[in-house]
């Protein structure tokens, strides 16, 4: 796909959700930053079924700047699905992914770009301090630790939403038939040639954050179930431990019976064991069901995203 015949050096993919206040300003800053960097670019803004006037603002920007491509999705699929939609349209030699709230400065794209040109497939922005709520920082730390196990992520790499990816890796990422995409998971499936550069994390000056605890948990579960068998591994070992504990308890009661010490006591123990084991069985079934559900939806070719309309885009024949 391409919006014109001129090959772009950098594509900038921005998922937009209820951020009408930021659309014009981030577009202005990107244009200024790319002119200073001296490269050709395209800016792809993916409206993830916003409830405000974000799409109207995107269309205004598209009218004023033909380097901006607007993509309007039919339904909200989450940030990662919106980014994946943008990646399918991106044609640049390098693709930048950034948020829509200006906490990622367009002027820092040059740092990521210069580092990527050294031969790295992916360059993450490393924030020394993050201007966000404490629970988000804790969530990022926890997600990073789990990613070290689930995705084999290097310990020193911070999974920043602000990053640049080379064209070859993007082409491989969009081939994955995964209904529940997780962008960092796709990256680590394709390459280990990854680094990071220090970048400042800015305070949000416009609008309010659309990310809450529930959405963060959903993203975490996408990573855990979409790119790892860790939940199955954990439930297997938990079941094995409970089975061993049950055998040990059975041996104990048999010894008690033949030694003449058995009595009618133990009702509480029995109830507790039934509750614990029953709960573990249900959790295990739920984990297996989660995987089976994702497989079912994937093999039935349920679309990862649905595009309703575009601006400034025409497919090259």
How would you describe the overall organization of this protein?
The structure is a single chain. The chain is α/β, with parallel strands linked by helices and 317 residues long. It contains ten helices and eight strands. The protein has helices at residues 20-37, 54-64, 79-89, 109-116, 134-150, 167-173, 183-190, 213-226, 230-258, 267-299, and strands at residues 10-16, 41-47, 68-73, 94-97, 122-127, 163-166, 194-199, 307-311. Strands 7-5-6-4-1-2-3-8 form an eight-stranded mixed sheet, sandwiched between helices. It is elongated, with a radius of gyration of 24 Å. The termini are close together. The mean pLDDT is 82.
Query: Are there runs of 5+ residues with pLDDT below 50, and where?
Result: none
Distance between the termini: 9 Å
Q: Main beta sheet, described?
A: 8 strands, mixed
Oligomer: single chain
Percent in strands: 5-15%
Number of strands: 8
H/E topology pattern: EHEHEHEHEHEHHEHHHE
Strand order of the largest sheet: 7-5-6-4-1-2-3-8
Share in helix = 40-55%
- The Cα radius of gyration reads 24 Å
Q: Would you tell me the overall average pLDDT? A: 82
The helix/strand class is alpha/beta
């Amino acid at each position: 796909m391409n919006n014109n015949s001129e090959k772009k050096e950098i594509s900038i993919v921005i998922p937009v959700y209820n951020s009408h206040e930021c659309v014009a300003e981030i577009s202005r800053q990107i244009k200024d930053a790319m002119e200073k960097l001296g490269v050709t670019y395209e800016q792809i803004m993916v409206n993830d079924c916003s409830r405000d006037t974000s799409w109207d603002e995107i269309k205004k920007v598209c009218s004023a700047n033909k380097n901006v491509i607007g993509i309007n999705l039919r339904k909200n699929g989450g940030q990662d699905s919106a980014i994946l939609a943008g990646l399918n349209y991106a044609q640049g030699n390098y693709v930048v992914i950034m948020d829509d709230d200006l906490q990622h400065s367009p002027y820092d794209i040059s740092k990521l770009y210069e580092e990527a040109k050294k031969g790295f497939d992916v360059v993450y922005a490393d924030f020394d301090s993050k201007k966000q709520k404490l629970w988000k920082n804790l969530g990022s730390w926890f997600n990073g630790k789990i990613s070290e196990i689930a995705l084999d992520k290097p310990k020193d790499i911070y999974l920043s939403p602000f990053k640049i990816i080379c064209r070859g890796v993007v082409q491989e990422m969009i081939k994955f038939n995964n209904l529940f995409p997780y962008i960092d998971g796709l990256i680590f499936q394709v390459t280990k040639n990854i680094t990071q550069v220090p970048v400042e994390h800015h305070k949000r000056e416009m609008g309010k954050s659309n990310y809450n605890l529930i959405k963060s948990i959903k993203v975490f579960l996408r990573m855990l179930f979409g790119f790892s068998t860790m939940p199955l591994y954990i439930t297997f070992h938990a079941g094995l431990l409970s089975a061993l504990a049950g055998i040990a308890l059975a041996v104990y009661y048999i010894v008690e019976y033949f030694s003449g010490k058995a009595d009618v006591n133990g009702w509480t123990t029995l109830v507790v064991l039934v509750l614990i084991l029953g709960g573990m069985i249900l959790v295990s079934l739920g984990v297996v069901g989660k995987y089976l559900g994702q497989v079912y939806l994937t093999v039935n070719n349920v679309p990862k995203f649905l595009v309703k309309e575009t601006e400034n885009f025409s497919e090259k024949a």
